[in-house]
């Protein structure tokens, strides 16, 4: 199978058994997907795919090639039917504010760096309410986390109420204590999606 690195346009001849996996380009050192047309086509909803203009042996003069996998595409497509990557088309993609990676328009979490993306409404909210202190959150979780006070501080009202109600029984208090320790280790944003300040 012939594939092209989308970053440096280096051509490779790769065994078909590697289809659907990721590889590192020997020329530029960046990762890229090796297409598996059958798997990708079945995983992507038909409404998001635009079929090639002519999939027969004669190739259309107006066809384009995917910059990620080199697969032939019809002009104007927004998503490659071979590798499933979103194609840049007149600013159709957006950039991750944390790592700068290209993302599909409606994603909520960056696939490159794993950060949750903050909507405009949450950004406006964060300018009205400054970020909360992570140290305060941790201290509240350590000393009164049994009652869910740290969850109320971060705006997680439902979780705070659940933790408080769990403390009405001994068994529930033990569960609530473990929940507080888990929150210390995992929670990095408040309920509005604003990252805690260090």
What attributes does this structure have?
two-stranded antiparallel ribbon; 198 residues; 3 domains; alpha+beta; 6 helices
What is the subunit arrangement here? Answer: single chain
Cα separation of the termini: 50 Å
Question: Helix segment count?
Answer: 6
Helical content class: 25-40%
Q: How would you sum up the major sheet?
A: 2 strands, antiparallel
**Arrangement of strands in the largest sheet:** 1-2
Helix/strand structural class: alpha+beta
Overall 3D form: elongated
Please compute the radius of gyration using only Cα atoms: 24 Å
The low-pLDDT segments are 39-60, 120-126
Can you tell me the number of structural domains? Answer: 3
Kindly state the number of beta strands. 8
Order of helices and strands: EEEEHEEEEHHHHH
> How confident is the prediction overall: mean pLDDT?
74
Strand content: 5-15%
């Amino acid at each position: 199978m012939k594939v092209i690195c989308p970053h440096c346009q280096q051509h490779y001849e790769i065994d078909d058994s590697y289809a659907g996996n990721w590889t590192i380009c020997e020329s530029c050192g960046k990762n890229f997907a090796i297409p598996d047309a059958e798997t990708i086509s079945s995983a992507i909803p038909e409404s998001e795919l635009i079929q090639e203009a002519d999939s027969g042996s004669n190739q259309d003069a107006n066809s384009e090639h995917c910059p990620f996998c080199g697969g032939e595409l019809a002009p104007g497509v927004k998503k490659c039917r071979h590798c499933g990557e979103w194609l840049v088309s007149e600013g159709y993609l957006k950039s991750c504010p944390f790592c700068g990676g290209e993302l599909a328009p409606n994603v909520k979490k960056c696939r490159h760096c794993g950060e949750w993306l903050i909507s405009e409404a949450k950004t406006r909210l964060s300018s009205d309410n400054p970020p909360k202190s992570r140290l305060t959150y941790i201290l509240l979780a350590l000393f009164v986390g049994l009652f869910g006070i740290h969850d109320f501080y971060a705006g997680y009202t439902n979780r705070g109420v659940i933790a408080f109600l769990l403390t009405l029984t001994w068994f529930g208090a033990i569960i609530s204590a473990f929940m507080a320790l888990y929150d210390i280790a995992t929670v990095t944003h408040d309920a509005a999606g604003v990252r805690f300040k260090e």
